DNA sequence: TTGTAGGCGTTATCAG
DNA sequence: CTGATAACGCCTACAA
């Protein structure tokens, strides 16, 4: 059974010292091993089916080859798309990706970062951004500082860098652009699903949307700002609630702060006999691929998801010492059949 | 700067031996450390902000705490959903998840498994199943055997266990059920997108669908069995091709072997002015959540994706020695608005 | 260029 | 119950 084969075995088999075998197999800094010996060692390694022990190497070198990625829910297409970008970049950099999900449980990020610190991950990417809760964010910040303390690098995706390298998403601006676009289509009475008390990113979207609208002279009344969990079910529930209240009758379009929520809203509307597009406009945010290909095509603000992951990875791999770098990334409004314009004429 | 703090430091600070400190902090098998000393050690550890080095522990213990998961593309909702199930189960088992994507590049699975073997991952889950290519599958099998050689456990999701524990999906049966359901709706002329030469799982779906149809007296002509990549774009391209040929006119319903492909097909149909549902039925396979909430709701065979991940994890954590275990898991036909029944009356 | 030897941070074996 | 002291598998000055 192979695997139990150690470098010493290879060295012995090749008739060289442990050091030489090590240098021949993995090129150390000063690359210099006699071509003949080098050959002998490789042959011996192959013959014995030697497989270097990554753990031992990590320990000897004092650093791992793994990159930690923290998301809220990998099944959420938003995070899945970002993860794909990170995975590709990590692969290219020769790093293994360690994925951890918070399941949106508060406090989990800290636990995960701590765990990653224990495992001496080389870097960690926080894809979820800040939570908006001062105390909680402070704890995360502390955990990240501690992680840096052991030589780890950090990057976060979100508005607030939490003192780290970060990919700054134009959530406010994107939502404002969307608001203007919808207003341009003729919509005047809006409702917003989600963003209250949630993560900063979502709060920013809602804020950007509402503020821009106010600037255009059509404020959104408080009772049409519905709280909702950032999930498909959250969107569904909020839309259902909206439809049950009398207020719904006057609403011409609904903005769900994420596409996934918008999908839930779509289902709720359909279940209530409301035709999305004809009777009511619905827009989301994120630009999830899968939701673009159906009828009605969802109006949204498309974010360069894979790019976000790639940039976050690049930032996470920068020399730990350097000053935090911020990379701004914007979204683009995509008008779909879900918002053809207001119903009455 | 914390992190550089080692167990020896803690031991010294607490005035005990290294061994005792180790036993006090992490309970070894024979748990017995005087309550007073135990307290002293913990206090010292806290004071010094000691953080155990996972790498060193792994090396000393001779085993890691990480579980490898190999998927083709984490951005694909099918794999994302399975990954979510695995992530939850891994978390519960106290393991870290190492995610690797093949990007559908042939040969990548072997490289990844080898890499995972180097890192001494405790177990690995192959979510992609067999490729259908004998040579390639043989290489994967060999890599897995080697992995087991170093004490690793394995489980694979798919029809063919590749000699390992496996979650056996009823792809054939599910597709056959779907065929019967569509036939029951009145559809008689079908086209199939994908499954040719692809992974075994997809080939089985196509085979199950076509065979069942043949049994019902309506064989699918070869020119209506279109080859397609198992992606959104693959589905789009295949549908476009179908629509361009004259044969399309006679087709009443299209079966894409994955929901993601079906989404692409939907887009292609719409682009060509074909109304899905009214003019043409479209069905997929997988039961991707996001695709269920739109109009027309996609007819599909819903797989218990999260469950698949959970089971695969359970299998991967079984004692490595045991005989391979097979867990069959079936899908359920879900009829949506995308296949209301054939057009002409 | 090649070999020797010390060390990385823990766990585990075996005496006290 | 506690404490020395070997491993663990590999890297790397330092020496030859």
From TrEMBL, chains A, B:
All copies of the HTH lacI-type domain together span: 5-61
What is the top-level taxon of the source organism? Bacteria
Task: Answer whether the UniProt record assigns the keyword Cytoplasm to this protein.
Answer: no
Q: Which SMART domains does the record match to this protein?
A: HTH_LACI
Per its record, what are the GO molecular function terms?
Answer: DNA-binding transcription factor activity; transcription cis-regulatory region binding
Q: What's in the keyword line of the UniProt record? A: DNA-binding, Transcription, Transcription regulation
Instruction: Please give the name of this protein.
Output: LacI family transcriptional regulator
What organism, scientifically named, is this protein from? Cellulomonas pakistanensis
Quote the gene name from the UniProt entry: lacI_7
